[in-house]
Amino acid sequence: MNSNNKLSFLIFFIFILYVFNAFTNSYIVLRENYQIRLIKGAGDCDKSGYGFYKKILHKFKNIDQNISVKNFNNFPSPEGYFYEYRKKKNTKYLILIGAEENELNKYLQDNFSSIYNEKNCYFLSK
């Protein structure tokens, strides 16, 4: 391989890195830890509601079952991040992500009570 081919390959390689934002993405991966990047991508009390679900698991450590989630944000449920197939699904608790007041009232009338909430995310119990 002569020097012109090597130089052409190097320029092409740097161009590909630039097109796919490899420099910026590498900086972000090195600067922020995994949990912060996941909350930015999957949302706290928006999008999938990953951050809110994580807070519930941290605050209520005595719950040793999978918690059902209803997401009103037109995003997938965050259950997939935390689902453990060996554990049963808990029907006593429910997490609402992006619930408006009228949607919350439907569950409150159905024998649920609010245990914890942030913004428009609610953790309910029967």
How much helix, percentage-wise, in residues? 40-55%
Number of helices: 6
Poorly predicted sequence stretches spanning 5 or more consecutive residues: none
Count up the domains.
2
| Shape category | elongated
The count of DSSP E runs of length 2 or more, i.e. the number of strands, is 4
Overall pLDDT, averaged? Answer: 88
Strand content: 15-25%
Helix-and-strand structural type: alpha+beta
Describe, in plain words, how this protein is organized in 3D.
The chain is of the alpha+beta class and 126 residues long. It folds into two domains: 3-31; 43-125, no CATH class. It contains six helices and four strands. It has helices at residues 3-19, 22-31, 34-42, 50-59, 79-82, 101-109; strands at 66-71, 89-97, 113-118, 121-125. The protein has a four-stranded mixed sheet, sandwiched between helices. A hairpin with a 2-residue loop joins strand 3 (113-118) and strand 4 (121-125).
What are the main properties of this structure?
2 domains; 6 helices; 126 residues; alpha+beta
Give a quick rundown of the structure:
The protein has 126 residues and is an alpha+beta fold.
Show the helix and strand layout.
Elements: H1 3-19, H2 22-31, H3 34-42, H4 50-59, E1 66-71, H5 79-82, E2 89-97, H6 101-109, E3 113-118, E4 121-125
